Amino acid sequence: QVQLVESGGGLVQPGGSLRLSCAASGFSFSIYIMSWYRQAPGKEREFVADISSGGGSKNYADSVKGRFTISRDNAKKTMYLQMNNLKPEDTAVYYCSVQSLAYWGQGTQVTVSS
Fold first, then answer.
1. Half-sphere exposure of residue 51, counting CA atoms within 13 Å on the CB side?
2. Cys staple from 22: which of 5, 69, 75, 96, with CB 3.0 to 4.6 Å?
3. Which DSSP symbol is given to 44?
């Protein structure tokens, strides 16, 4: 059974940091590109970042470049998103995904507010 379980969300003040995790099981994690997406209230889901199977290639949305860092640990079957200098506009539910398999996690809420 395929599972993608996100964790690490929460409430943080502007300028703060959070680290999201996505624990995967039920498929060959190490051979797939993994992605983070987010969906803010009233908006469409949008791409945040992705990482190649080996971790050597990463892509970011312009809105998060220089602030967010995606990484993965294939031995632990886990992907991460380090989010620094958070802004109120980063408030959203964050999802991990295997786009090529149309797998999605249940999401974790990130709220940036003073």
1. 22
2. 96
3. -
Residue 75 is classified by DSSP as T
Question: 112 with 38: CB under 8 angstroms?
Answer: no
Burial degree of 62 (CB within 10 A; 0-12, 13-18, 19+): exposed
Query: Pairing relation of β-strands 103-104 and 92-98?
Result: antiparallel
For 88-103, how does the pLDDT look when each residue is reduced to its tens digit (9 = 90+)? 999 999 999 999 999 9
Kindly state the tokens that stand for 89: 């506009």
Would you give the DSSP letter of residue 2? -
Q: How far is residue 32's CA from residue 72's CA, in Å, rounded to a whole number?
A: 11
Give 51-85 pLDDT, tens digit per residue: 999 999 999 999 999 999 999 999 999 999 999 99
Residue type at 82 in one-letter notation: Q
Backbone φ and ψ of 66, nearest 5°? 85, -10
